[in-house]
Hints:
The chain is of the alpha/beta class. The chain has helices at 19-28, 30-33, 44-54, 93-111, 125-130, 138-145, 174-177, 180-196, 223-237, 254-259, 268-279, 314-336, and strands spanning 7-11, 37-42, 61-63, 75-79, 117-120, 152-156, 161-164, 204-208, 241-246, 262-265, 284-288, 294-297. It contains 12 helices and 12 strands. The chain is globular, with a radius of gyration of 20 Å.
Amino acid sequence: MLFSNKRIAITMGDLNGIGPEIIVKALYDSVIRLQGRFYIYGSDKYLTKAAGELGIEKFWSVCSPGNFPEKENQVTVFDYGFSIGGGIREPNEDSGRASLLFCSDAISDVFAKKLDALVTAPIHKQSWKMAGAKWPGHTELLTHKTGCKDSAMMFVSSELKVALATIHCALSEVPARLSIKKITNTLELLNQTLVKYFGIERPRIAVAGLNPHAGESGRFGKEESRIIRPAVVASRENGIDADGPSPGDTLFTKESRDKYDGFLAMYHDQGLIPVKTLSMNDATNVTIGLPVIRTSPAHGTAFDIAGKGKADEASMKMAIRVAAMMVDRKRKFQSEK
């Protein structure tokens, strides 16, 4: 079988979540395997167990972490040899430590250009905290490890492309985290991503307000007039075709989705509710602004169904497809410079 020369890292995430299962299911699909050569950072034991439960024969080779095989196989597992314990379907320190190590090593290898892109299976943020991680999630770890000044979460699906101005924080903290600079920077990252990786020459971007009715002239909050609207004006002066702020409850209608190429939400759930409502099975998380390509499924560890063969691999497949597409776009963009 012929397969692409793209080299894609996949981290297994929390070993007791659905990561092993969705990786096996996704890569068992020969069409997905045509997307590249895959290097899985995780545990051969857990992957083999997931495959056995699904009635799938082993289709990967195994080697020790960091030892890239001289002859590249289609799927290679870097086996860390972890054994967390049977049936621990809840956050715990050991699984947090393991998934953190998988991510750290994979990020280092992609950043060193040994691999072209990174796809991460779900981790559990509480497990990372229990393991002493300094970062609440993938996005923050990636930003730190790559020395990136600005990054943001963007969700891509067949229906929407939505970036978030703020990510993992309490709702009560959102207003204090918003600033004109924060919003203009995120709009710039979103615009650059849509041009470079999605081939949209002049993206049209809609910006959400923070408050009900986008503040309604200050009656329900002043963030729109003090922060968001000035940021939109400044971005337009810098050549970005941005509109807003618009009320969040009507921003994601069919009419708006037809009109705009991308959206900027002010906080996590404002952007994720429409994405997951419209496209739960094909949504992908893309970290924008990084010097490396990173995608992930738009769901969590799903401890409640882990090990039962019920996990849907569609979002993992989409994450792999989007990562491969972004590698192609990046190469084309660089060749044209």
